[in-house]
Amino acid sequence: MKVNGQQIGLAGQMTVAQLLEQQGYNRMRVAVECNGAIIPKSEYENVFLSEADELEIVSFVGGG
């Protein structure tokens, strides 16, 4: 699958929540798009990924 334009391999069946944890993302500070559709945070545990999926993960950064 592709994450932010880079090819990565999935370690078996995995949800969006599991991928975010594996990749070190803070689930509360990201937005995830899968194959062009925004995934609501409430669905991260329910959306299973496949090798054909393309994810874009955007992190929110605070500043002042």
Explain the overall architecture.
The chain has 64 residues and is mainly beta. The protein is 12% helix and 34% strand. It has 1 helix and 7 strands. The chain has one helix at residues 16-23; strands at residues 2-3, 6-7, 14-15, 30-34, 37-39, 48-49, 54-59. The strands form 2 sheets. Strands 2-1-7-4-5 form a 5-stranded mixed beta sheet, with no helix packed on it. A two-stranded antiparallel ribbon has the order 3-6. A hairpin with a 2-residue loop joins strand 1 and strand 2 (6-7).
Unreliably modeled segments? none
- The rough form would be described as globular
If you compute it from the alpha carbons, what radius of gyration comes out, rounded to the nearest whole angstrom? Answer: 11 Å
The fraction of residues in strands falls at 25-35%
Mean pLDDT: 93
Please list the strands of the largest sheet in the order they lie side by side: 2-1-7-4-5
What class, by secondary structure content? mainly beta
Number of helices: 1
| Strand segment count | 7
The amount of helix comes to 10-25%
End-to-end C-alpha gap: 35 Å
Q: List the helices and strands in order.
A: EEEHEEEE
Task: Describe the structure in brief.
The chain is mostly beta strands and 64 residues long. Helix content is 12%, strand content 34%.
Can you tag this structure with a few keywords?
34% strand; single chain; mainly beta
